[in-house]
Amino acid sequence: MVTFTRERTENGVTERLFDLTVAGERVPAVIWSPEAGRGARPLVLMGHGGSQHKKIGTLAARARQYAQRLGYATLAIDAPGHGDRISREQAEKLAKEVGERVRGIGGTGGPSAELMKTMAERAQRAVPEWKAALDAAQELDFVGKSDAVGYWGVSMGTAIGVPFVASEPRIKCAVFGLAGLRAGATALEQAANAITIPVEFVFQWEDAVAPRETGIALFNAFASKEKTMHVNPGGHVEIPNFEGGSWLSFFARHLGMVKAHTPA
Amino acid sequence: MVTFTRERTENGVTERLFDLTVAGERVPAVIWSPEAGRGARPLVLMGHGGSQHKKIGTLAARARQYAQRLGYATLAIDAPGHGDRISREQAEKLAKEVGERVRGIGGTGGPSAELMKTMAERAQRAVPEWKAALDAAQELDFVGKSDAVGYWGVSMGTAIGVPFVASEPRIKCAVFGLAGLRAGATALEQAANAITIPVEFVFQWEDAVAPRETGIALFNAFASKEKTMHVNPGGHVEIPNFEGGSWLSFFARHLGMVKAHTPA
Fold first, then answer.
1. Which of residues 214-253 of B touch A (CB under 8 A)?
2. Dihedrals φ, ψ of B250, to 5°?
3. ipTM of the shown complex
4. What is the CATH number of domain B4-255?
5. How does pLDDT run across A41-99, given as a tens digit for each residue?
6. Which residues of B fall within a CB distance of 8 Å from A230?
């Protein structure tokens, strides 16, 4: 049973905060949905990037757009070691570290063995948290057990999302990106091999975090019959705006729209 | 001054046939536009594929859709050695040859030196034909000299389109695809290097005609700041339907829509 800790409505979209407890730890969550919307509707789970949090601007803007234009609900949670799960000082330190990696400071040779281990552990912890969040969301009367559930997550949202989506049959389509498959990343490779749902994979051609060949390797590893890779020039944080339109079309194509929903 | 040889209207779209004479040779052309539409509007030039012709089903369907949904005019011409410029027997022989290449019969080692020479000559001949066709179209009262002109062409439509677009400043954005840059194709490489307009490049990952590395090489050769490559699984003739939606969005984004046009 979900208890909302805060609720506010703006431009026809209601944002509700709640907390989950998973393996004894608090996992803060947020869900956006059309104001006064009732009954089952498509749900998109959005995984934020490294050093970001569940309500980061670009993610929240997309959630509001999906509610307004498609009638969807969108769910986000703070990843392990992120958002409201760490102090402000820790968040600032993390932002600095991730910022340097994204700008290629410290070389583009890829993450250290220690960092890869941290990331793999984080992904492992996040999977049951996402499952618990999806369970909770599907109990809500304005979400329901619609089988139209999608996942969106790039960068760390892909590192966590690939193992999550591979093990979660309720997810029907996924947007991934800004991540690659390096030699030795066996768990990520096996998870990608287990994914058969439609995938849209966005990749930046000059990404200091994920070299071209690793991006192609991850795209190739998905077992999906329908998968599409969008390559654009530029660095890790330079996905062109028009990809946002493509993601919206992708979800609308696979999850449908809410009947009788009037786009704002 | 253009004289139409045939004209017919169906579902709100008028299709008009006309002939151009370029370098002493007849170049058959077709233009689709919204019924009773007058005044300047965006124009898309569509180059058909090898062994196809200016009114091939998929191309004509897209032209009608653009007229209905965006208010556009679409122009197509028969490429040298194609369509109404050859006999039915020649067309059947050509379709057989191209069909075998597309299915990888004869190996995927790439076209012979002779075939590459034929293709390069064809592209060279086609460039002034496209310029003459664009000149003629811009004299029409339902097209006008709008500076919103785009190009669409994959496979042979890219082999011809890249040199044409590189030399034609009236073209503001282009969709290319199903083609690659092979070692020694200097003219194609130089033309691609000269293209700076937004490009959407669609590529099939198991294309018997264009191996992956040649597709990536052609994408890399475009000098455009905005360029995006869409990679999908499958062979030369298996572009997924959803790419059609992406092309429509691409043109709408760069060429706009006709004001006061009511989508059908």
1. 219, 225-233, 240, 242, 245-246, 249-250, 253
2. -60, -50
3. 0.91
4. 3.40.50.1820
5. 999 999 999 999 999 999 999 999 999 999 999 999 999 999 999 999 999 999 999 99
6. 228-230
